[in-house]
């Protein structure tokens, strides 16, 4: 591929176009059977655990925290090496966000740091599958259990990943997924909440639809009439339309191939950059089969920005993932200080994400690696 190489791009084929076109002529554009079908299709990738599909990955986080009863007076433990939504969704519900540092090798939440962050007010420990790789979920489960807290896995990067043979979606009390255009599968915008708890699943489903209660057996005034519905707890309209759910089901049929191709690209980067002393390639957890969403290379701090600008000038769409969440002014204004999670901050200063998407060719990867080598060769 010549010219500008994007950092990420969706993979849409004729089967997706046909599925969406067909959905546009169905009687239901929203709140129809395609929603339940997509949720059922997702269960094949989440260990059979049910999901609630919503309008975005951020909506999934908001819905999951709401289902968990997160609110004022509670604390939620979050790693800072993530998109700000992981923390913001809890803060919007009135909880205090407590940032805990990440593992130096993986960039995922460090169980020891999470343990140190616990208090009697901790209600949720939220892990992030950075770049597609999970944290030590068994260790984090033990940490959450000791605190009497729920374990949440922000799996926006990692549908298709398994940890010790168990798929994402089966590792935590609540798991959130994202189907944004650049993710491992897309519904253009969209997300889902998966839960191993029927009660949490039910709470998420209600929050996604204004908190409406339609079952007369659960209503306070069921004799009002056949049209009657009640709101027992406040929710929002986070419903994902049928037309986008149809796209999601179509994409899921090719997810295994997407995961395999992303693994090939990631391995090709590893091999091509192995001899570049200044480049640290991603750690590959021994206990995980990773559906790679990002290729997060690390370079010396003083080289990261000039390398970024060098690659961008050559038409390579690199990115940095992520500014530590508490560096954002909205958290700085609440009193969060730089320096509190030194490992995550070092990651940020060193990290550069090279292009990774299914349509990337081997020649594209080689072109990127040639440019990286040339930069460090001087």
UniProtKB/TrEMBL annotation:
GO MF term set: pyridoxal phosphate binding; transaminase activity
Positions bearing N6-(pyridoxal phosphate)lysine: 183
Origin superkingdom: Bacteria
Family matches, as SUPFAM superfamilies: PLP-dependent transferases
Assigned keywords, A-Z: Aminotransferase, Pyridoxal phosphate, Transferase
Gene3D superfamilies registered for this protein in UniProt: Aspartate Aminotransferase, domain 1 (3.90.1150.10), Type I PLP-dependent aspartate aminotransferase-like (Major domain) (3.40.640.10)
One BP annotation, GO: polysaccharide biosynthetic process
InterPro entries for the chain: DegT/StrS_aminotransferase, PyrdxlP-dep_Trfase, PyrdxlP-dep_Trfase_major, PyrdxlP-dep_Trfase_small
Protein's UniProt keywords contain Ribonucleoprotein: no
Keyword Transferase attributed: yes
Catalytic residue list: 183 (proton acceptor)
PANTHER family, sorted: DTDP-4-AMINO-4,6-DIDEOXYGALACTOSE TRANSAMINASE, TRANSAMINASE
UniProt record similarity statement: Belongs to the DegT/DnrJ/EryC1 family.
Protein name per UniProt: Aminotransferase class I/II-fold pyridoxal phosphate-dependent enzyme
Organism field: Modestobacter muralis
């Amino acid at each position: 591929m010549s010219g500008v190489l994007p950092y990420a791009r969706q993979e849409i084929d004729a089967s997706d176009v046909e599925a969406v076109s067909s959905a546009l002529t169905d009687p239901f554009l929203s709140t129809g059977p395609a929603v339940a079908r997509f949720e059922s299709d997702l269960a094949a990738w989440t260990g059979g655990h049910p999901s609630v599909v919503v309008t975005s990955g951020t909506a999934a986080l908001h819905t999951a925290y709401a289902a968990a009863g997160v609110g004022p007076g509670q604390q939620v433990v979050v790693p800072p090496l993530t998109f700000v939504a992981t923390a913001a969704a809890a803060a919007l519900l009135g909880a205090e966000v407590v940032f805990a540092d990440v593992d130096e090798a993986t960039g995922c939440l460090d169980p020891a740091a999470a343990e140190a962050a616990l208090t009697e007010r901790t209600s949720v420990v939220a892990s992030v599958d950075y770049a597609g790789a999970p944290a030590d979920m068994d260790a984090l489960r033990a940490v959450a259990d000791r605190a009497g807290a729920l374990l949440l896995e922000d799996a926006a990067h990692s549908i298709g990943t398994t940890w010790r043979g168990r798929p994402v979606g089966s590792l935590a009390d609540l798991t959130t997924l994202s189907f944004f255009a650049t993710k491992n599968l897309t519904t253009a915008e969209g997300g889902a909440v998966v839960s191993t708890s029927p009660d949490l699943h039910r709470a998420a489903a209600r929050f996604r639809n204004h908190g409406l209660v339609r079952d007369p057996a659960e209503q306070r005034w069921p004799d009002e009439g056949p049209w009657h519905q009640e709101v027992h707890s406040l929710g929002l309209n986070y419903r994902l339309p049928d037309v986008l759910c149809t796209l999601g089901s179509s994409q899921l049929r090719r997810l295994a191939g997407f995961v395999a191709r992303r693994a090939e690209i990631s391995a090709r980067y590893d091999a091509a950059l192995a001899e570049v002393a200044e480049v640290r390639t991603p750690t590959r957890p021994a206990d995980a089969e990773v559906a790679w969403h990002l290729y997060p290379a690390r370079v010396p701090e003083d080289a990261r920005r000039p390398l970024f600008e060098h690659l961008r000038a050559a038409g390579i769409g690199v990115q940095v993932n992520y500014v530590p969440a508490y560096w954002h002014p909205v958290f700085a204004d609440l009193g969060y200080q730089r320096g509190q999670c030194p490992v995550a901050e070092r990651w940020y200063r060193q990290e550069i994400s090279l292009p990774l998407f299914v349509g990337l060719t081997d020649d594209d990867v080689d072109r990127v690696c040639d440019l990286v080598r040339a930069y460090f060769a001087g």
